[in-house]
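HUMAN: Spend a minute on the protein record below and explain its fold to me.
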Amino acid sequence: MIDGDAGEECGVVGIWARGAQIADMLTDALFALQHRGQESAGLSVGDSSGIATHRGMGLVTEALPAAATRHLSGHVGIGHVRYSTSAESSLDNAQPFAAKTRSSTARSVMARSIARRGSGRSGSDMAPLVAGSVSGYRSGDILVRSPNQRSRGRMTTTELPANMAEAISRTKQELRARIGDVAGAFAGVRDRMRREVDAVATDPAAFPVVRFRDIAEGAVPHRTLGAVRRRGCAVVRGTFAPETAEAWDAELAAYLADNDFAGTYQGPADDVFAGLASGQPQIYPVYWSKPQIQARQHEHMVAVRRFLNSFWRHESEGRVWFDPDRDTAYPDRIRRRAPGSASLGLSAHTDSGSVERWLLPAYQRVFRHVFDGDWRAYDPWDGAYRTEVDEYPSTVMCSAFRTFQGWTALSEMRRGDGVLHVVPIPSAIVYVLLRALQDDIPGDDLCGAVNGQALPVDDKYHDDLLPALTSIPDVEPGDTVWWHGDVVHAVADGTNPDRWGSVMYIPASPHCAKNAAYAEQCGRAFLAGKSPGDFAPEDYERTWTGRATVDDLTAVGRDQLGL
């Protein structure tokens, strides 16, 4: 692997960390490089006493299980994921091929190979040779674990700043300097948003409706496609047959009753909605019922999510960010609102990070055009760098990249029932970002954003946006509802007059290294009946009867959970 020119295929990572055991670090890094090769993976790890290597076929999860890499000890090493361009895909050709020698001839050959790539490395230490051997690869494809990142299983979170107020103040100063005319930029965005809000008010189809039959037949009208792209939301009519959805609802009710959920439920275990004026609707921390598993792996759901992923640019900046045609699981909860019960609603907000949207370098790259003063160039459908965002740890963080958030209706719902509303303008996030940088906002404040809570959007700071809040159309059992991950959304106060209001939360989370790593963790939680890692560890289902098992998974379902 050292001789020859570095091309566009395969992925390589090298780590040198004196005093550390790096096998797990290398494995984590290869998850981030999984898009560069899916045929095989391997590690070579060592120190002055020697080098140990393990190679295997398949994805990183298959080729490098913990049991197989536990013996790899050392502070210096290299990892590889392979995409073959000539030799056949086989274990014999899996890499790395490791060699350590005191031979001056061998060192000379390696040094010449490295020097051809311009590193100019020399000397007797193995570490420079490892470092030099990867110097020809694009820096964006080599993961370097920084001191402010920590591993959660095989996902990575970013450690909280020791002084959040100081970090916010410093970051705001840096971003304002990058943008330059911050007031002028926001004035331009405000004018654009006001025109967009006016357009929403006169658009009878501001929440587009797509027929599942058209998706299945590849016959969605161009006008509808344009509406979904502009509005960032959609209802997909008839994703499932009404009788299927109603049967799932009945089975869920029986599952809860059989396991006495009402008698054991201890109330919300997180404060995700604590910063909102309205509180939390009736959301149950249940993840592993058979209806939820069946819906997630259903071929209709797979087709809808593939359709939604297609609105995104999955390849940009010279890289492939995710596979729009392959699913991973993001197991979420259910909502059940009893007949006659009032919904407390949810105030307007966005998910997938609050203070992170300003503070994290990866999010700064997502919004690079905005923070470089060229907000008009921002494309809300560009997937670049979104798969590299690692939120601060909390019980409400999201470890996955979701192209769309969504839910599946298990019952009839009408506009007055206390239903989802959205601001159907995907680029409205630009307004939110720049609003926090204006002179009237204190230096250590981001318009009320707090780590571990949803990012609030309210009339104190964002009054231009809220008139665009638009209700979903009436929905029937089996319809699915979707909105772009940046879209501002809320749940209205309301009352179900004479019917249950039930949904299963199922988003679109396409396959990428970040999502695959989280899905694998969810697979382990599924087997144990525990809450997924992104949610509070309530683990109600651990001892429940009637919970889904491996036998209930199809091949798609197993793949979605990394099983």
